[in-house]
């Protein structure tokens, strides 16, 4: 009998998910053979998505869910996110929306499906519904700086500059005195173009030895036209941390944020070649994203195949790669 962890939800919510997503209704525990098949179908679905066969991917993900025997745990939820992405890419917008709604009903405290559904509404031109979902996502994840920035970028992308600005204003209301709080508030002020406030917040983060804040500070100098000071900060940081894989990863991520994907890729590859690589998995994920942004899909696919083989249980990261293609 399989004793893997499942989420404890009410019977009503379980049946909503089961009936909406088509999970087979068979009482009892899921056996090892069914679990093995479920993972195999999931892997097949991911491969089909990478190949662009989205309809086939939906079919594979559904077959994976059929193996669950009414067991709904983290694996099934992960498959549902994949299924929704495949449905959208296959042109089945309504199916994707229904899948996200089922995930919302299953876990009413999770903001992720609201954000993702909001992205679909935005792509479909329904700005008001998108805003409603984005607001709900923030209501459920009020301290998630990354979520605020993601919504801001989505709204900027369709010219909703006023609404995007309000999102950043709301993000600044998040309280906190940790280094990350000061750093992220500094980043948000940077996005707003309030460079003086950005420097004040980033100074506080730097005083707490937050290295990424130092790199945001370099961006502030760049934005103000002080390229010499910005370059000095980059070079100083690189000189002190240039052989450290975590430092190189951070430099790469900063270049990604600025849209300098070739430079970012070079940093990630240097990090992977470092004498001691303590964060290989995270760097390899970033390397794949950099290749995708450079539209070198052949290299991205090659790296993805190796990554999935080495980290088969990294379900969240794999799903994020799929969503990246739909943004």
Structure, described:
- With 327 residues, this protein is mainly α.
- Among the domains are: 1-110, Alpha Horseshoe (Serine Threonine Protein Phosphatase 5, Tetratricopeptide repeat), CATH 1.25.40; 243-327, Alpha Horseshoe (Serine Threonine Protein Phosphatase 5, Tetratricopeptide repeat).
- It is built from 18 helices and no strands.
- It has helices spanning 11-21, 32-51, 54-66, 74-90, 93-106, 112-123, 127-140, 145-157, 161-171, 179-192, 195-207, 211-223, 227-241, 245-257, 261-272, 280-293, 297-310, 315-324.
- Helix 10 (179-192) runs antiparallel to helix 11 (195-207).
- It is globular.
- 37% of the residues are buried.
- Residues 1-16 and 23-28 have low confidence and may be disordered.
Main β-sheet description = none
Radius of gyration: 21 Å
Classify the beta-strand content into a percent band: under 5%
Count of DSSP H/I helices: 18
- According to CATH, what is the topology of the domain at 1-110? Serine Threonine Protein Phosphatase 5, Tetratricopeptide repeat
Give the helices and strands as they follow along the chain.
HHHHHHHHHHHHHHHHHH
Fourth CATH level, the homologous superfamily of the domain at 1-110:
Tetratricopeptide repeat domain
Estimate percent helicity. over 70%
User: What is the average per-residue confidence, as pLDDT, rounded to a whole number?
Assistant: 84
Which structural category fits the helices and strands?
A: mainly alpha
Segments where pLDDT lies below 50 for 5+ residues?
Answer: 1-16, 23-28
Question: Could you tell me the number of beta strands?
Answer: 0
Q: How far apart are the termini?
A: 40 Å
Can you name the CATH architecture of the domain at 1-110?
Alpha Horseshoe
The CATH class designation of the domain at 1-110 is: Mainly Alpha
So what's the overall shape?
globular
């Amino acid at each position: 009998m399989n004793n893997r962890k499942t989420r404890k939800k009410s019977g009503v919510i379980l049946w909503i998910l089961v009936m909406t997503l088509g999970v087979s209704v068979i009482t009892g525990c899921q056996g090892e053979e069914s679990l093995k098949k479920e993972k195999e179908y999931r892997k097949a679905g991911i491969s089909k998505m990478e190949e662009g066969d989205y309809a086939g991917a939906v079919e594979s993900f559904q077959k994976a869910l059929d193996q669950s025997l009414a067991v709904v745990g983290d694996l099934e939820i992960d498959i549902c996110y994949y299924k929704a992405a495949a449905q959208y890419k296959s042109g089945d917008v309504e199916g994707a929306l229904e899948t996200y709604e089922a995930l919302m009903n299953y876990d009413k405290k999770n903001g992720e499906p609201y954000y993702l559904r909001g992205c679909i509404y935005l792509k479909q031109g329904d700005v008001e519904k998108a805003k409603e979902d984005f607001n709900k996502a923030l209501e459920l994840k009020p301290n998630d700086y990354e979520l605020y920035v993601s919504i801001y970028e989505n709204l900027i992308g369709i010219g909703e500059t006023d609404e995007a600005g309000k999102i950043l204003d709301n993000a600044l209301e998040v309280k906190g005195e940790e280094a990350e709080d000061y750093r992220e508030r500094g980043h948000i002020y940077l996005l707003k173009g309030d460079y003086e406030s950005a420097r004040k917040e980033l100074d506080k983060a730097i005083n707490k030895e937050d290295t990424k804040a130092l790199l945001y500070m370099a961006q502030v100098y760049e934005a103000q036209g002080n390229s010499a000071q910005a370059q000095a900060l980059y070079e100083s940081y690189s000189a002190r941390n240039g052989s450290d894989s975590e430092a190189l990863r951070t430099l790469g991520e900063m270049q990604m944020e600025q849209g300098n994907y070739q430079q970012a890729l070079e940093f990630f590859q240097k990090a992977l070649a470092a004498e001691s690589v303590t964060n290989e998995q995270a760097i390899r994920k970033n390397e794949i994203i950099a290749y995708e942004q450079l539209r070198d899909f052949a290299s991205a696919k090659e790296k993805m195949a190796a990554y999935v083989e080495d980290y088969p249980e990294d379900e969240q990261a794999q799903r994020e790669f799929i969503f990246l293609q739909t943004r």
